[in-house]
Structure formats: C-alpha cells, structure tokens
Design a protein that fits this description.
By secondary structure, this protein is α+β, with helices and mostly antiparallel strands. The chain folds into 4 domains: about 5-50, no CATH class; about 95-170, Elongation Factor Tu (Ef-tu), domain 3, CATH 2.40.30.180; about 175-330, no CATH class; about 340-419, Immunoglobulin-like (Sandwich), CATH 2.60.40. It has helices spanning about 5-10, 20-30, 35-50, 215-225, 235-240, 250-260, 265-270, 305-310, and strands spanning about 10, 20, 90, 95-100, 105-110, 125, 135-145, 150-155, 170, 175-180, 195, 275-285, 290-295, 310-315, 320, 325-330, 340, 345-350, 360-365, 370-375, 385-390, 395-400, 410-419. A hairpin with a 3-residue loop joins strand 12 and strand 13.
C-alpha cells in the first residue's frame, strides 16, 4: 500500500477524534497496552512517521552506471580494443593552437591549448592562422618538446612572420571519431594476407591522398581502375570483410606502425608480420618501374622515425595488408518523448534508454514540483518514474545520455506543466 493510500483514510472529525482503518486501530491498541512509557513513545513516533505525508527531494539522481568501454561503444583512446575487435589507432579531434614561434629557419615551434598526443614523424597541417602565411598544408613533427609543445619542420623560411592569433590542427573531415585497425585473423588466417599492388593509371591528378581519413577514398579510386577489376588479391578480401574496411593511406599506415611496431613481441602477438605492409598512397610514377607506393616495414621497429618505419616500393612489389575503418557519430540521437502535462500527484514513466539503446540520466531541476525515481537498472524494459507534486506548477527536467562511437551525446531539457 502506498503512503498516499494510508494518509487518505485518516481525516479529522468534528469531535477532535480520528477515523482510523482497522490496521491502524490494532497498532494503537497495542501501544496503549504497553507498560513502559519510553517504549510506547518510540512506537508512537514510528507510527507517526509511517502516516506522515511524503517529503521526497525535488531532485533525485539516477542510479550510477558503469562507464561503457570502447568495445561497448564508449569513449576510446589509442590502443583500446574497439567494437568488433581490433585496436584504435587514431582519435580524430581538432587541436587548438595557442602560440607559434617562427624564429628558427624552416621550423615552427607550436604550443597547443590541450595535449596534442603527437609523436616525432607525424604529418599534420595547420589552418586558420593569423597571419595566413603560417598555414601549413603538410608538415612533419620533428621534435616533441612537451605534452603541449612540439616543433614542426617546414619547407619554407617563415622567420619574417609573427603569430598573431587563432589557428588549429584540424580534425579530418567527415564527422568520424576513431580509426580502427582490423584484428588479427580478419581475413580468416592468423597471418595477414599478401597481394600484388594494384595498378593505378591516373597519375595526372595526384588523387591518392596521404592524410589520415583519406584511405577510404584512395581505395575507391583504386577499385574503379579497370585493370584492377576482378583481381583476387586485396579488393576481394576487403569485400568479404564488409564495406567499412579499406586500405590505409600513408599516414594511416604510419599510425598502425606507431602502435604495433614499437615492440616486436607485441606486434607479433597481434598477428603483425615483420614484412612490409601496403598503403593506398602513391607518391609518383616512374615510366620504367611503375608507381612508388608507401609501405610500413614492421621489422624496422623500436623507432618513431617515419623515414625508417615508412618505406616506398615501386608497383611490381608484393605486400601484406591490414585494413582500417572509421567509427563515426550519426547526426543526432533520438530525443526522449515525454508528455507536456502531468496531473497533480500523477505518475509518468520515462524510458531509461534512448531508441538507440544508450542509457539515459534524468535530473529534476531546482524549483520543480515533481520528483523522479530511477530504475534499479537501465535497459529497454525499465523506466524512470516521474511523480507530479501536490500542487500545480512546472517540472523542469534535464535528460542526458553519453556520446558513443555511433551517436551524438544527448542533452535535452524538458518542462512539464503539472495541473
């Protein structure tokens, strides 16, 4: 029986007495028969507390949940095992620049407002800088000074230009969050497969890009080449693995190398061969030898120098393949549907997960005339219980859900009229 049901059966009479239900009467008779005044007083206090109206807090926090792992769709870091297996090799985010010192010839010393997570040899670009002469289409990290400072090697002497304001190391386009390498055994065998490099005939446009996030476009270009149609090597294996997987670009293969090749024993445990691995980036064409492809040689480990870790071979070579894929966020999570009005003292159930299955948290904001109680667990069949107050007013809610590898974070505010 609810607290409200018990209190509704006790009402004042004109004589000053109370009309009481049988269960309450039995409890009162028991009290009068006690001989010890202290015990009788304690029992009366307990009985009064049971009959008193509810005074629940206006804001009840939902039951805490364990944070989802990267494999479960939660936040990821480089080296984490992502959804479906395979490790995260790159986190895609914009890094804001706080200062640039151009005093050294052919170098920029760059400070960032947050840890940059770059290593020596990384290729990056700089955009949105004032003056624009300090924008860099492609530069190489030559030295990591600290977590928030590094030195970038450039091809031009930029000592005449002084940094004024703004600028970022941009995130790769497309709205994706993470880059994931395929797990060991992705092709059906413990060792990564070998294949002959595809032929690329259109060299005039220099379309095979080097940047992180460009490998999927490179792969589509290579697949469209007429001379590669029907080949049983890499493209056939990729098709069997699913549409998301593709041949990594130069910088993407460099990120695989950084993660797996720093320790030969750890690379071997992940199924990485000491032989060369193929990248989808081609630098130039030689009429006699063919295309010059970038590759990662994993036997040249224990170094962070891409001049050693990354090599190049002409197009008559055979390499191994470890594909990658992007994990991205969809446009928006579905909002949690809630009625616009609620009766005084009435109750309303609110789903404890979004339509996509992401766990929801609900908080009643200050000044609201309602309370919320969280379920013991959160899944598609459980609900928060929202209860209207004892008088008319408004109930303001904040409904949140975490960002995952598929969905934007949810932060919804809802005002309900209680009447």
């Amino acid at each position: 029986m609810s607290v409200e049901a018990r209190t509704d059966r006790t009402r004042p009479l004109e004589t000053g007495q109370h009309e009481t239900n049988p269960a309450t009467l039995k409890a009162m008779i028991t009290v009068t028969r006690m001989t010890k005044p202290l015990l009788a007083g304690l029992t009366a206090l307990a009985l009064g507390a049971a009959l008193a109206p509810s005074t629940a807090s206006a804001s009840v926090a939902p039951t805490p949940r364990a944070v989802a792992t990267c494999a479960e769709g939660g936040r990821c870091n480089v080296g984490d095992v992502g959804p479906g297996g395979g490790k995260i090799i790159y986190v895609n985010r914009e890094i804001r620049i706080s200062n640039i010192n151009s005093a050294l010839d052919n170098y920029l010393t760059i400070a960032t407002s947050a840890p940059h997570n770059l290593v020596t040899g990384d290729s990056i670009s700089l955009t949105g800088i004032i003056p624009t002469q300090l924008d860099i289409a492609k530069g190489t990290v030559s030295e990591v000074i600290s977590d928030t400072e590094f030195r970038l090697r450039t091809q031009l002497d930029l000592r005449a230009y002084t940094y004024t304001s703004s600028g970022v190391i941009p995130a790769a386009p497309g709205g994706w969050n993470y880059l994931q390498a395929a797990p060991q055994g992705w092709s059906g065998d413990a060792a990564d497969p070998q294949g002959t490099l595809p032929v690329y005939s259109n060299i005039s446009g220099n379309l095979l890009d080097w940047r992180v996030g460009s490998g999927d476009a490179n792969t589509r270009i290579l697949k469209r080449q007429a001379q590669n149609v029907g080949q049983l090597d890499f493209f056939n294996l990729l098709t069997n693995s699913g549409a998301d997987w593709y041949i990594p670009s130069e910088t993407e293969i460099w990120n695989i190398y950084k993660l797996f090749a720093s320790d030969s024993s750890s690379a071997a445990t992940q199924g990485i061969s000491p032989e060369s691995y193929f990248s989808s980036t081609s630098s130039f064409f030689d009429n006699t030898l063919g295309h010059l492809w970038y590759s990662a040689n994993f036997e040249l480990n224990l170094t962070d120098d891409p001049g050693v870790g990354l090599g190049n071979q002409f197009g008559d070579s055979t390499f191994r393949l470890r594909p990658v894929r992007k994990l991205w966020i969809h446009t928006e999570q579905t909002k949690v549907a809630i009625a616009k009005t609620l009766g005084v003292g009435a109750r309303l159930q609110i789903a404890s997960v979004t339509n996509e299955g992401t766990p929801v948290s609900i908080r009643v904001l200050k000044g609201s005339v309602c309370t919320v109680v969280a379920p013991a667990k959160q899944n598609r069949r459980t609900f928060f219980t929202l209860t209207g107050g004892k008088k008319p007013g408004t109930c303001s809610l904040r409904i949140t859900a975490p960002k995952t590898y598929k969905h934007w974070a949810l932060d919804q505010r809802k005002t309900i009229t209680v009447r």
